[in-house]
Amino acid sequence: MTTQLPYQFNTTQSGRIICVALAVSGIFIIPCLTAVAYGMSGFNGIPFVIGPLLLVALGDVVAAFILFKKLGGATGRIDAHNVVVKADNILGMRSGAPDGSYGLSQFASIKLQPRGDNLARLILVGKTGTPDVTFFNGPFATAKILAEELGGKLNLPVEPTVKTA
Question: 80-102, pLDDT tens digit by residue?
């Protein structure tokens, strides 16, 4: 694998999938459970069922946006002098990822952060006053190679990481 500069990145997929899945599940809870309640013959408690269902659905949608704010990613570009990051946005809500343009000298290192059995995240570690930028989520082996190659091209050290079994 040979990494070329500028390196384009997109870490928005996982945050969007979680947000959409939770929002859609919240939206579908109401008609499904309402149909079940209406199907019960002789049941006069429909108003008592619909209220809690609306609260559950609303809670699901709110949880989707809270998780998006925390897990939503960004798109951007890393070159020999700058890092440009654009935080993801769904329905006007911006993810918690940084947004802006930063000089490469504002970053101290690249961190390889294992996640689960075979996954990893790569993070440009910002110096004081500069946010950390996650620029890769994927297979551990690919992340390791990418970290070493980008570290060499950008003259940034790769933080040592212990991968747990």
Answer: 999 999 999 988 889 999 999 99
- What is the DSSP pairing of strand 89-90 with strand 93-94? antiparallel
CA angle 49–32–92, rounded 5-degree value: 95
Q: DSSP per residue over the chain, as a string?
A: ----SSEEEE--HHHHHHHHHHHHHHHHHHHHHHHHHHHSTT---HHHHHHHHHHHHHHHHHHHHHHHHHH--EEEEE-SSEEEEEE-EETTEEPSS--EEEEGGGEEEEEEEEETTTEEEEEEEE-TTS--EEEEEEEHHHHHHHHHHHHHHHT-PEEP-PPP-
